[in-house]
Structure formats: structure tokens, C-alpha cells
């Protein structure tokens, strides 16, 4: 009743977006708008991976993606300032800027620090051992190690938060709100954005790694689909009715590529296997890219570094990739796409003699 006394009625923004004067209604609207923003951010993220996979990482990662990533937040603040009179617009923009500043600082502190804690591994000779954490309660001898490019970008993230000080310093010093301080801050932000874009264009190291990660994801998915088709051509099914990888089908695949029947697959046999995958993708890649994919396959599956892939190593790798593929399939739009076995069944058969 107190809220209704203060706000007897509310008007829909632009006659389209709903409003509420009750606490439950406001919480519901916050939830709905938050979900819409989250969905939009996920779409931008998924689209950025596809762009990095097919286009120049410097231009895409340095120019397009930073601008696309900043559009939702900036558009929300601009639109909030267009409604109502001058005082209402000032209040809305102030709340929007404060929320954006808080979320940015939270990402730089809680999210960044939390990722370091959750992703930490054992430290040996000053370097983190990937995927090994034997002392989970020890925060002094566990952690992460990064390369120079990641370190530089972390400094840039911290410096970006300092731009919020431009309009705040006069207030801290006791001066009244001055529009010129906000203008100087806005110009500084634009210059910082231009400098960051130029830096990413001329030094696109992180974007190149994102492109490589997207390529690895495609390689894993293609390998799983090709393996399913090969098993189907051999008269068996890779994915059983229970949605799990069948070991007898894996054995059939392993025997197909173990040409000398010595119980392991060497690099030459992996190279022939990769040619089957190239035919499956229809890319016809050769040369350095193809050899890099062969080396990636060896590194990914040869866990003990012996130079050969045993059946147990292949089984562990296929199971790991299938789990990753299932997690990815849960983000598909249709129930048919979310059913991983149907995704595999849709893959055309592959002729093992090709290539």
C-alpha cells in the first residue's frame, strides 16, 4: 500500500514494455529482462566463436567483438535516459551507470578471482600442471600460470576500471557535479576503446588462441560424428540406446586403424585416420594445417607420451569428447539436436578407402 501511495500508477515504456508497482511484479520483470540480456550475451558469444573460426582474428576480435560486447549495456543505459523528464532521465542514467560499474568491478574481482581458485592446479617448479589437483585445500602451492599476453590483458582490464574515476574524482573532492567531468570521462573511454581495438588488431594473440580453441572444438565434434559413421558402416553402433559409448564399437574402430595389428596406433596410422576426417569435413586440407591436426590428435589421445595410442587411451579420449559433445548439444534449439545419438545418425557414411 505504501508503494501504491507513492506510485499510484505506472506507464508502460514506449507503450510496449510492462511495468509494476509491486515488489513481486518488479522482481519478476528483473528476472525476465535479466534472462533476455543473458540470452543475448550467449548469442553474441556463440556467434563470436563462429566468426573467429572463419575470419581474421585481429579484425573480428579487435574491432567487431569488443563493440558488439559493449552494445547491450550501453544501449540499456541510453534507452533508460530517453524516458520521462530531465530529472527522471538523470536518475535512470545514474542507476544504470552505477549498475554497470558495479558489474564490471564484480567481474574484475569476484569472477576473475573465483576462476583462479576453481581452475587452480598443482604448482611444480613454478608452473601449473594441467588438469592435476592433488592438494585441493592448499592455496599456497596450487594456482595457475599464464603467458605474457594474458598478463597484459589483465592489466588492461584493471586499467579499464580506473576510467570510472574521471566523473567521481570531483565528487570525492567536494565539488558539485560537473558535466565537464563526465564529458572528459566519456572522451577518455572512447580513446581507451580505440586504443584497445588497435592493440587487439596489431597483437591478436588471444584472438588467435580463441580461433584455435574453436577449431579444436570442431575437430572433436567432427571426429565423434565420423567415428559414429564408420562404426555404422562396419555394422555396429557407436552410441547405444542408453546414450553411452559402446566399447565393442570402439574396439571395431581401433582395429580399423591399427593396420599392423600391434595393439597400438602410431603417427602414420593417425595420419591415415585424419585423412578420413578431412574427407568427412570436405575441406581437403593439406600441408602444415593438416600436419598440425595430426600432431594435435596425437597429443590429445597419447596421454603417456609414448608416441603411440593404445586402446585404453583412445577409449578415454572418445568418452571425454562425447561428454563435451553432449554438454554442447544441450544448447541446441530443438529436442532432435539435443539428442546426441540422432546427431550422430545424421552424419553421412564415410568410405574408409577414400584418401
Classify the oligomer.
Answer: single chain
| Individual helix count | 14
Low-confidence segments: 331-355
Note the beta-strand portion. Answer: under 5%
The average pLDDT value, as a whole number, equals 75
Cα-based radius of gyration, to the nearest Å: 27 Å
Proportion in helices? 55-70%
Q: What is the topology, as strand order, of the major beta sheet?
A: 2-1-3
Backbone shape:
elongated
H-E string: HHHHEEEHHHHHEHHEHHH
What is the topological layout?
Blueprint lengths: L1 H5 L16 H32 L2 H24 L5 H33 L2 E4 L2 E2 L13 E2 L4 H15 L2 H8 L6 H24 L2 H29 L13 H11 L6 E2 L1 H15 L6 H14 L7 E2 H19 L5 H4 L1 H6 L10
Antiparallel strand pairs: 1-2, 1-3, 4-5
Helix pairs in contact: 2-3, 2-8, 3-4, 3-7, 3-8, 6-7, 9-12, 10-11
Structure commentary:
This protein has helices spanning 2-6, 23-54, 57-80, 86-118, 148-162, 165-172, 179-202, 205-233, 247-257, 267-281, 288-301, 311-329, 335-338, 340-345, and strands spanning 121-124, 127-128, 142-143, 264-265, 309-310. It is elongated, with a radius of gyration of 27 Å. Residues 331-355 have low confidence and may be disordered. The strands form 2 sheets. A 3-stranded antiparallel beta sheet has the order 2-1-3, with no helix packed on it. The protein has a two-stranded antiparallel ribbon with strand order 4-5. Helix 3 (57-80) packs across helix 8 and helix 10 crosses helix 11 (288-301). With 355 residues, it is mostly helical.
